Amino acid sequence: MPIGAVELPSRGHWAPSFAIPRGRSSPSPITKTKSPAEFFAENKNIAGFDNPGKSLYTTVRELVENSLDSAESISELPVVEITIEEIGKSKFNSMIGLVDRERVDTKLYDDYETEKARERRLAKEARAQELQAKNAALGKKVKEPSATKGAKGRGEASFYRVTCKDNGKGMPHDDIPNMFGRVLSGTKYGLKQTRGKFGLGAKMALIWSKMSTGLPIEISSSMRSHNFISFCKLDIDIHRNIPHVHLHEKRENKDRWHGAEIQVVIEGNWTTYRSKILHYMRQMAVITPYAQFLFKFVSEVAEKNVTIRFSRRTDVMPPVPVETKHHPSSVDLLLIKGLIAETSKGTLLQFLQHEFVNIGKSLAERLIGEMGPEFSPKMAVKSLTSQQIVRIHQLFRQAKFDDPSGGCLSPAGEYNLRLGIIKELHPDMVATYSGSAQVFEGHPFIVEAGVSVGGKDVKQGLNIFRFANRIPLLFEQGGDVVTRTAMKRINWSSYKINQTQDKIGVFVSIVSTKIPFKGTGKEYIGDDTKEIASAVKVRHCPLVLKFFVTNLTSKLTTSFLQSAIQQCCIQLKSKIVRKIQDREQQERKRNLSRYVPDATYAVYDVLKEISKFHASKKRRYEEEEEDVLRKVQSRSITKETLKEMLAQYVEKVDYEMALEYATQSGVNEEPREAIYIQALEDGYNFTDLHSSNFVFRFIQ
Amino acid sequence: MADKKLKQKRRRPDPTSDDESELPFKNILKPDQAILETLKQLFLAATTTTTAAANGASTSSSSSKPLTLSDLSLSATCREVTDLSLSAVQSTIETLILQIARSILAGNGFSFQVPSRASSNQLYVPELDRIVLKDKTTLRPFASLSTVRKSTITVKILSLIHQLCLRNIHVTKRDLFYTDVKLFQDQTQSDAVLDDVACILGCTRSSLNVIAAEKGVVVGRLIFSDNGDMIDCTKMGMGGKAIPPNIDRVGDMQSDAMFILLVEKDAAYIRLAEDRFYNRFPCIIVTAKGQPDVATRLFLRKMKMELKLPVLALVDSDPYGLKILSVYGCGSKNMSYDSANLTTPDIKWLGIRPSDLDKYKIPEQCRLPMTEQDIKTGKDLLEEDFVKKNPGWVEELNLMVKTKQKAEIQALSSFGFQYLSEVYLPLKLQQKDWL
Asked: Is the ipTM of this complex over 0.85?
């Protein structure tokens, strides 16, 4: 299928019908209509399902982001548990009811070991063992022999059960099959900053599971008002793009749980994507410090197991982003047509006034006047011809409108960003900065930045953390504008930060109703059929994202980005300078004393030479100099004398300087930071000890 | 202007005369005799002006040098160093060390007054056509974290130089560095302090008996004595004679050359040496392979002063080529304290000049676009006084910055490897095309 020829739209107007001719060169009269599910099954790389490893990663992040959105939508502090369970081949076979067969014709297989190869391997192993024995005999520390890399042939696929449980909104019982089992069946979306809505992500995971394991997805869900849990087991009929429900029932809800739990079995590759997944979780914890994550990897091999808890650090949640109308300068032709088709307003005047931001009544009238004689305020908006719409579009491009406000955005917040950084990195120093809302092409955006120095598990040099609409971006870091700005446009040394030696963390979070992603047609997958023309989504920009690189946008945002990072650096500089001064104070004496011997020996060497020649009275010296030379000759002045005198002097100077420093700087304390104590869960008995001022409360 | 020249058949005994059409501009070359005539004029002009200047000077004052710093009444006092004898260096060091020792014994530590060699302390003197050092000094106390290392290294270097004086030997900068690697850490530090020490003592670096490794080479019509051995630079093979690092042992220069050709790069130098360019047009060819070292600059000055030959420079057509030219001519900022001994006045820019790129139709693919850094360097150079004083240079540099193109000497090789020696240089000389 010539997908290369299909220009993927950069906003959400996905052509509703998937009528794609079979061949480009010889268009056959019979065109096959592809179901959207089929389309995505064949082009799964668009959604980040390029290979098993990446599919595992994408599945995890889709599920996590869904969970966060779901919890935030009902203003609940998110609690997300994600478990990846490795399933061995035989276990997998038994799950799908396949009998494990022993290999009979061993030569048939790719990983068959010939006689020669076997001999070579055995010899090598013997040598290694010998060496090890020798080392052990010598008492050297022996490195554990690395687990022999299992002959993982191509045929040896790894399967994983990914489970994600949240405390979110849940889903209405009857909607569940369609929400999962039909691609491009989302509800109508407005213009909104969004991490992603319940859309393609989970469905792609389902398609991937269907393709790689054939096992259905299991969904449990309950809404706040419900007293039951909906359980649904389904897969998708890819050709017809309809859900295929195995089981759909209501179960008892004992714990009054609300939220969703999704379980999917897919092919994946933990070994290669382990670090990506863990990075993702960590960065997610940085940008959402108000959420609690429990990440578990369970394997048959116990030492491979991973359990990480990212605990909550704050109760403050950013506000839910508000849906907003389009800004006239950001719309395109198709979008205007879409809006006209949808609008409930009758006249052109009303349409302009109500479907866009920053167009008031008087401006709408002026605009209509400018459009030309064939336009009038009272004309029915649905009667506009294509040419007339083009005229409106042209005018929108040229006319001047007020900038949209950033009120519809929900930035992570300087406070949360700071907490997230402190919580996950434990840096020595951190500075954060939040810019005011800016506008690009009719879309508001906010840049927030943080810079940290030092910390736990941070490598030396620049560590860049990028977030777009509060989700971490992990791939294609090199081309990213944040990376480039941090590496090239920030002069770190002028802030007393050593770009290669210090552990620097750079955090940049950009929120917008439209993130100017750049990529190879993979940025975006439309999420709706025809009603919508404008879902501006970020999450479905799968992970191969380049993040505005060279276009105009980058120029504009770069300057904000640069200034945001610089603001952080300026804050840090004063701290760093002070720290350096403190350290200098402490180490001054030691550093000065270190050079005393070198300096005095050099002086003494010359003195000795002079005194030798002085004996022969070659040159006349002043009286005091004579005196010194005589003393050198009579050895009443030696190396040691000079050394002692200089050392005394150093001591004196050090004392004076320390005194001066103390009087200048005074006693200064670091600003205090509030600590966060996590709320205890219910179900404890306490013993209280009361005093007049306070209460001690002990858990029994 | 090249086309307006009278066209004449080449009569040089050369077997390659049938491929004339291949080498552009070859047909307008006059016979060598004619070119030699023009060179003779140049030669005569150079010798007469110098002798005239010398005569003029000798009549007005007793000194034979044309102009010195002390002759000018400059508003800012400037610092200049002189060649000092070994014993003088020794006694200056001794006085300094005794001062330090007394200061230490008195319980006051010690510190140095070091003449600042920062660019803010440099001054271009148009009358002298070179950069000189102003009189600002910085204090280098032992009892400060920022200078403790440097002051210790300074004492150490002083003591090492003192030893050299006592023993009357020469060592290289590298030797000096290896006496205490732990303290110096890397050679740039000991080298920098060495220049500081020269400034403090008020002597040239060569009077400290510390030399740099040989870098420059010379070939051509020159005979001189190096440490007592007579050297004939026409008989030095292709590589030429390495320029001796201690200039004080060089003497008895004789030459029948008509000019000195200063070449920026080794590659062009080898081409000219192999083609024995100096036999076709009697000259002395010198290169320092990039930025010139002290020895090469001293040597060039000595040649210029003793032989009174005009100096023509062949450098790349980029800002760095001009910069190298300026170092020969006006001195480097780092060594400005000794610019009087290191600079060679009146160097002519023969090529390759930005205007040559079009004049000699150098193909596009051989020209390189200037990087942002190049352009910035070029613009900075335009602000420098030593460029401003020569309107021809300003024009050329403006052209370079405007076209944003640079070319190396090797760009001429696109017309054949020998184009440089066969056509380009003879033509340039014939047309007196230097600035």
From this structure: no
Give the whole-angstrom CA distance, residue A313 versus residue A292: 8
pTM of the model: 0.59
Compute the average pLDDT of residues B192-208: 89
Mean predicted confidence (pLDDT) in B295-316: 90
**Residue type at A246?**
H
- A633 inside 8 A of chain B by CB: no
Domains by residue range for chain B, with CATH: 78-211 (1.10.10.10), 213-431 (3.40.1360.10)
pLDDT in tens, B26-76: 778 888 888 888 888 888 887 776 554 444 444 443 334 556 666 676 666
Query: Where in the sequence numbering do the catalytic residues of B fall?
Result: 178
**What sign results for the dihedral spanned by CA atoms B166, B171, B177, B182?**
negative
* Cα separations in angstroms, B237 against B230, B242, B270, B273: 15, 12, 11, 8
Residue type, position B131, single letter: I
By C-alpha distance, the chain B residue nearest A612 is B166
- Is residue B274 marked as binding? no
What is the gyration radius of the CA atoms in chain B, in angstroms?
24
Report the half-sphere exposure of A277 (CA within 13 A, side-chain side).
29
A205 burial class (0-12, 13-18, 19+ CB within 10 angstroms)?
buried
Determine, for residues B148 and A598 on separate chains, whether the beta-carbon distance falls below 8 Å. Answer: no
Candidates A449, A473, A520, A413; CA nearest to A195 is A473
Is A602's CB within 8 Å of B109's CB?
A: no
B398: helix, strand or coil: helix
Inform me whether the C-beta atom of residue A645 falls under 8 Å from chain B C-beta atoms: yes
Taking CB atoms and an 8 Å limit, are B104 and A642 in contact across chains? Answer: yes
Residue B81 three-state SS: coil
Report whether B316 belongs to an annotated binding site. yes
Give the angle subtended at the CA of B425 by the CAs of B420 and B426, to the nearest 5°: 120
Distance between CA atoms of residues A518 and B107, nearest Å = 68
For A37, phi and psi rounded to 5 degrees?
Answer: -60, -40
Q: How many CB atoms are located within 10 Å of the residue B202 CB?
A: 17
Burial of A261 (0-12, 13-18, 19+ CB in 10 A): buried
Instruction: Return the DSSP state at A356.
Output: B
Rounded CA Rg of chain A? 34
Half-sphere exposure of B167 (CA within 13 A, CB side): 11
